[in-house]
Specification:
5 strands, alpha+beta, 3-stranded antiparallel sheet, two-stranded antiparallel sheet, 133 residues, 5 helices, 33% strand
Length: 133
């Protein structure tokens, strides 16, 4: 059963401006240490950052039915798996919010998709509940 769906689009040019203006201060505020390590290895930093920013925004939208008062940027992290596909992990208040939406006897599943079409990056997030075995 679907608990929440979120979508966001981010302009890579806007991210480039913010990176030029605030550099590491902006990076540290938005990205986890693991996301920052992936960013450092990328040639297209604006696209990578914009995609991760869009995922974080989409997570907040997917959690619209939860208490969001303590959610922070670092509570949603998206890393690339071995094939390059995004793997979204929730922690802190984002995880607590998602778990609060879970019906009894169910486990949380989190899915994310990122698309880049310069100058835009788009992200789609689905939170679902599956019966526990």
């Amino acid at each position: 059963m679907i608990l929440g769906i979120g979508h966001d689009i981010c302009d890579q040019r806007r991210i480039a401006e913010l990176l030029n203006r605030f550099d590491t201060r902006f990076i540290n505020r938005i990205l986890t240490k693991q996301e920052q390590a992936e960013l450092a290895k990328r040639n297209q930093k604006e696209a990578y950052f914009a995609g991760r920013f869009a995922v974080k925004e989409a997570v907040y939208k997917a959690l619209a039915g939860a208490d969001q008062s303590n959610m922070r940027w670092h509570h949603a992290a998206t890393l690339s798996n071995g094939s390059g596909a995004p793997h979204l992990t929730l922690s802190g208040a984002c995880l607590a919010g998602a778990e609060a939406l879970l019906p009894a006897g169910h486990v949380l599943r989190v899915f994310a998709s990122i698309s880049d079409e310069p100058p835009y990056s788009s992200a789609f997030v689905v939170l679902s509940a599956e019966p526990s075995q």
